[in-house]
């Protein structure tokens, strides 16, 4: 077994101090170009790989970003939104020489305890929360200790935190309004995730706004987990008991596909169903329905970009970004 090449080995071979080798690796301006070139040549010849943990201690930075998802109400493995947004985040961070740590918790108490432990141990440079929370206790804690984080979603305190989102209320309003005005639908059902999810609430507000503008007082509301089989059972039962429903506005493509299946099983073929998120699941399904391209990768990229600006103490023009969503109409 070959012995691992150490910093001291490089220093000895290059005839410099270990401190000089460390400064060369860190690309310090204190070291001349000639010395950098000489030391780098030795590093290459010896195939020396710097100890990333030691480097992080030296520069007081781990180069690791934690990605947090509390999955109490969400199954990330069955919802393509999360796999797509994780892909966008990781692609961006890799290009910026950051690593990622996925923090997956099943309840708020575990999440808070684990995140505080990681932050206290200085293992992370920052955090990205994959959704906004009604209970912002953990966010307030991080803000108080000035630990950098960003949120994908709209928080309660939009002025203090770093966040990125679409205009979910406006988009759902536009979809619902079109169903009423152009498709002449009057009994429109809203199918969303649990109402404690802020994104569900914002999209619900758009649905309600469109109904009120047209003096439609009757609301049909279904809450479901983002699982096709679970949602199918809930939606089918609701449709059996509410036969006047002639359109369904959903907050996710998973729920849209479950709604279409439920309608077909009840032979309700004139019900128009709309989705949201334009996920891979929709693109590979055999169902044609209106959905919304929320620019998932752009959301992830912008959340990373703003967070790194904060970590590196660079000037931010704004603490938030609204990414323009695109409704993909299916006639």
From TrEMBL:
It comes from the Bacteria. InterPro entries: HTH_LacI, Lambda_DNA-bd_dom_sf, Peripla_BP/Lac1_sug-bd_dom, Peripla_BP_I. Pfam families: LacI, Peripla_BP_1. Keywords: DNA-binding, Transcription, Transcription regulation. CDD domains: HTH_LacI (cd01392). Gene3D superfamilies: 3.40.50.2300, lambda repressor-like DNA-binding domains. The keyword NADP does not apply. Residues 5-59 form the HTH lacI-type domain. GO terms for molecular function: DNA-binding transcription factor activity; transcription cis-regulatory region binding. PANTHER family: HTH-TYPE TRANSCRIPTIONAL REGULATOR GALS (PTHR30146:SF109), LACI-RELATED TRANSCRIPTIONAL REPRESSOR (PTHR30146). This is HTH lacI-type domain-containing protein. It comes from Sneathia vaginalis. The lineage of its organism: Bacteria, Fusobacteriati, Fusobacteriota, Fusobacteriia, Fusobacteriales.
């Amino acid at each position: 077994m070959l012995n691992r090449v150490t910093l001291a080995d490089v220093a000895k071979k290059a005839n410099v101090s270990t401190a000089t080798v460390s400064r060369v690796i860190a690309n310090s301006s204190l070291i001349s170009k000639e010395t950098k070139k000489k030391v780098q040549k030795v590093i290459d010849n010896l195939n020396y790989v710097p100890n990333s943990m030691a480097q992080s201690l030296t520069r007081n930075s781990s180069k690791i970003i934690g990605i947090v998802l509390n999955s109490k109400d969400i199954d990330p493995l069955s919802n393509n939104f999360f796999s797509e947004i994780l892909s966008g985040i990781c692609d961006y961070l890799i290009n910026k020489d950051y690593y990622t740590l996925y923090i997956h918790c099943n309840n708020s108490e575990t999440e808070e305890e684990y995140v505080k432990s990681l932050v206290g141990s200085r293992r992370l440079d920052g955090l990205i929360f994959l959704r906004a929370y009604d209970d912002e206790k953990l966010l307030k804690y991080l803000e108080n200790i000035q630990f950098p984080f960003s949120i994908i979603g709209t928080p309660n305190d939009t002025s203090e935190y770093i966040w990125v989102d679409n205009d979910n209320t406006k988009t759902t309003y536009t979809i619902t309004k079109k169903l009423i005005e152009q498709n002449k639908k009057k009994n429109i059902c809203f199918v969303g995730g649990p109402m404690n999810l802020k994104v569900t609430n914002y999209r619900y507000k758009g649905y309600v706004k469109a109904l009120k503008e047209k003096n439609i007082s009757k609301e049909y509301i279904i809450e479901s987990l983002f699982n096709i089989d679970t949602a199918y059972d809930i939606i089918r039962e609701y449709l059996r008991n509410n036969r006047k429903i002639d359109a369904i506005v959903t907050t996710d493509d998973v729920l849209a596909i479950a709604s279409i299946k439920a309608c077909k099983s009840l032979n309700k073929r004139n019900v128009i169903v709309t989705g949201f998120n334009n996920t891979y699941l929709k693109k590979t399904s055999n169902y044609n329905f209106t959905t919304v391209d929320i620019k998932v990768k752009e959301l992830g990229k912008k959340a990373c970009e703003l967070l790194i600006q904060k970590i590196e103490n660079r000037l931010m023009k704004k603490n938030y970004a609204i990414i323009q969503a695109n409704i993909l109409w299916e006639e």
